[in-house]
Amino acid sequence: MPQRREGLRRPVRAGRALLVIPIAWIVAVSVVDLVAPPDIHLGPLLVAAPAITPLFGGPWSVGLVSALAVIAQTIIGLVRDPGEMLSSNHQAQIIALVLVGASLVIFCVFRERRAKELAQVRYVSEAAQRVVLPPLPKALGSLRVASLYLAAEAEAQIGGDLYAAARTTSGTRLIVGDVRGKGLTAANDAALLLGAFRVAAHRQASLDELVNYLDRSVCWDLMEPGETGCYGETFITANILDIPDQDSRVQMVACGHPPPIVLRNGRPTTMDALHPAPPLGLGELAHPRYHVDSFQFEPGDLLLLYTDGVTEARDSTGTFYPLTERITGWTENDPDAFLVRFRRDLLHHVGGHLNDDAAMIAIAGTSTPRA
């Protein structure tokens, strides 16, 4: 909490420091106007001071600068026309400054109110996301695990990315997926699937039976009263994996999701499914038979599971993030260290702002062979 407050104070301090600019402008224009010949009037330039203040200041700052501009214009008028209180020209300039200042203050009030509302919405969204998608445990049996979730900056909506892990008597089962769409509907679908996975991962004996149960759970949810989705419109792409404790071959059922990557000695290998299945929730249409694929996961390897928000992240030129190319040569075997580097590299590629949520899980085995 102290760190968060400190982060909030920094923009305020920066805005206060920048107040020197409009105040210096008011002083400079006033001095030059007073020493200039009588036929030269620089007073109208004072309006620039309150006009630029909303770029870095709030309503109080804008009000202060506007008041100083009005005072400066009044002093200029009194000095310029000592025989009169104020000429009609100076009166018009003062009225214009008051109107401009008042308008800018009102604008800043509404802008700050809107910013607070958006910040509150984003805070609630992130809190709900943390409830639906908590970080994975650092250790799952003999596996070392790290998880990363990056929320999109473009909008304060709850995303549909999901992942979870469950220990069984013989190993670890994981799911990583992405719900079609965004918002509360996507969060509800993600929570439903995660709940079904956590319940059934321990009970279903085989991986294909587990996936079949998950697909039926999504389909059943669509038939609930009040649901607006229908078959073909709501679905969830996912990879479901089973990593045995005593075997080096990982079992996987791929349901329309980007394939896992095994990073071995700095060389990434994409583990494409030989028998891919349609996304979860389409079982009533496709009637699929779920085939279990397998691939080798040796001690010293790093297994990467991710959502399409990673591979579809674009830079300023519209180029997708080339995941396998970027991680080629990376030799980090520690999941946390890998994700720290990956996060930095991904955000550098997109210029610091993601347009879609992105999630990744990094898994490393122990140095002792499981087979």
Which architecture name of the largest domain does CATH use? 4-Layer Sandwich
Total domains: 2
Instruction: List unreliable stretches of 5+ residues.
Output: 1-8
Structural class of the secondary elements? alpha+beta
Strand tally, please?
11
Q: What topology, given as strand order, has the largest sheet? A: 1-2-11-10-7-8
The CATH class of the largest domain, by name, is: Alpha Beta
> How many individual helices?
11
Largest beta-sheet details: 6 strands, antiparallel
Shape: elongated
Can you offer a commentary on this structure?
With about 375 residues, this protein is an alpha+beta fold. It has 2 domains: about 1-125, no CATH class; about 135-365, Phosphatase 2c, domain 1 (4-Layer Sandwich). The protein is about 45% helix and about 20% strand. It has 11 helices and 11 strands. A 6-stranded antiparallel beta sheet has the order 1-2-11-10-7-8. Strands 3-4-5-6-9 form a 5-stranded antiparallel beta sheet, covered by helices on one side. A hairpin with a 2-residue loop joins β7 and β8 (about 265-270). α4 packs antiparallel against α5. It is elongated, with a radius of gyration of 30 Å.
